[in-house]
Prior knowledge:
Oligomer: single chain
Keywords: Membrane, Transmembrane, Transmembrane helix
Number of strands: 0
Order of helices and strands: HHHHHHHHHHH
Mean pLDDT: 83
Largest sheet: none
Transmembrane segments: 20-45, 57-75, 96-116, 148-169, 181-202, 232-252
Amino acid sequence: xxxxxxxxxxxxxxxxxxxxxxxxxxxxxxxxxxxxxxxxxxxxxxxxxxxxxxxxxxxxxxxxxxxxxxxxxxxxxxxxxxxxxxxxxxxxxxxxxxxxxxxxxxxxxxxxxxxxxxxxxxxxxxxxxxxxxxxxxxxxxxxxxxxxxxxxxxxxxxxxxxxxxxxxxxxxxxxxxxxxxxxxxxxxxxxxxxxxxxxxxxxxxxxxxxxxxxxxxxxxxxxxxxxxxxxxxxxxxxxxxxxxxxxxxxxxxxxxxxxxx
Length: 261
């Protein structure tokens, strides 16, 4: 990595982490402090259960959702860096590395918090709450391999969400402020219509819809015990999705222009 790209990556990563920390503090206030204050003011102090809130708090999921929202905000950083002589290629590479690094950090913090919560508050371990473990946790004969693949799957899924949000943000950056509102209405309408058509098709073709769903999640009838479905198909779907999102982000970044607005 060149020195310039390294500097841009560090700048973007620090900016992302700063925003992540700021938003997370407000989330903590909203989830923990506000309910406590409301309970105290309403005279229901006995119903306050901070331990239960902390025990059930999904730190990793919360951080990834915040990262996805941050990933949608692209234009300000793009304009600043382009105006300071940074190429589009360098910006795209640095932004991708910064988002990936922040996602890895978010997942690590999530796992550490889950370990702390299950040890101190006797909450569920990450294996018990993991969708992957429930569906694919017995696919390999080695328990270590199953847990390792569960962590990798979690990281890939988080990257899928963050990169998808980044692509959406990049797409809307192509348009002026007024055009963004019109595009947002059009996209939401298209998604709703597509969803309704899919529901209608699935309702009329239950068998085919079931087969499609089974294919996407790697369900195998010949595996007669829980958690033994094939994870290779979902892994492949996530890998293809992440690559497509990155390519889409690259194409949009190469065509994005600095506007006077």
